[in-house]
Amino acid sequence: GAGVSQSPRYKVAKRGQDVALRCDPISGHVSLFWYQQALGQGPEFLTYFQNEAQLDKSGLPSDRFFAERPEGSVSTLKIQRTQQEDSAVYLCASSLRGEGLAKNIQYFGAGTRLSVL
Amino acid sequence: AQSVTQLGSHVSVSEGALVLLRCNYSSSVPPYLFWYVQYPNQGLQLLLKYTSAATLVKGINGFEAEFKKSETSFHLTKPSAHMSDAAEYFCAVLVNTGNQFYFGTGTSLTVIP
Asked: Which of A3, A4, A21 has the alpha carbon at shortest distance from A12?
């Protein structure tokens, strides 16, 4: 596609519900990133994939957060038993190559705004 | 450890005036530094980046930034603000691993007509 697409754009969940957020990266992009952006804050790194391999998940805040990219394209971020502190905008980004971002531009999606009531 | 600090969460300038958005970094090794812009309901867009080449970096939309090692700064400037520059601006440093950013808390720029 022309850009990184995320769905849904808005999600309201009751506390304790499970949610799944989808990211369609730019076609052919090797690297995929998830970020969490709380209100009034900068994005915080959650996890990174190179093709289908999850190479870094050091930013996932708890074991309730799980991400996958089984075929090396679309990725899903799943949050189990949502809590109010999970309310944030979840951003997905992709980049063409698997090498470091010093030489490799990240393209961001518009994000999914999750509100947990 | 790497981190960035953006001084001033809100900046207002008159249309045509100089834009100056401040970013200071902390890094134990020579950093890679970035500025991103975020328009409402859109994803982040790369404005410019410093990757140890020229210290004065020119980006899109007339923005530029200067890397000053002695001041550990990477401030973003634009000589003449335009109404379309109103947005949220984020400074970021790249972690050694090469695939993890630390973002600042952002500066919201308002342009007054």
From this structure: A21
Q: Please provide the DSSP assignment of B69-83 as one string.
A: TTTTEEEEEESS--G
Mean pLDDT of B24-49: 88
Instruction: Please state the φ and ψ torsions of residue B10, each to the nearest 5 degrees.
Output: -135, 130
- In the predicted model, is pLDDT for residue B41 greater than 90? no
Residue pair A106/A63 in contact (Cβ under 8 Å)? The answer is: no
Work out whether the CA dihedral B90, B97, A29, A64 comes out positive or negative: negative
Bridge partners (DSSP) listed for residue B14: B112
Residues of A with CB below 8 A from B7's CB?
Answer: none
Q: Chain B residue with minimal CA distance to A108?
A: B43
- Eight-class DSSP state of A3: S
pLDDT in tens, B45-103: 999 998 877 889 999 999 999 999 899 999 999 999 999 999 999 999 987 667 788 89
List chain A residues with pLDDT less than 70: 1
Using the beta-carbon criterion (under 8 Å), do A100 and B97 form an inter-chain contact?
yes
Question: Do B91 and B74 contact (CB within 8 A), yes or no?
Answer: yes
Report whether A67 contacts B66 (CB < 8 A).
no
Shortest CB distance from B99 goes to which of A40, A101, A109? A101
Name the residue facing A108 among B44, B94, B98 (closest C-beta).
Answer: B44
| Interface residue of B34, B99, B102, B107 to substitute, partner A, most A CBs within 10 Å | B99
| Predicted local distance difference test score (pLDDT) of residue B97 | 64
| Contact B46/A at CB under 8 A | yes
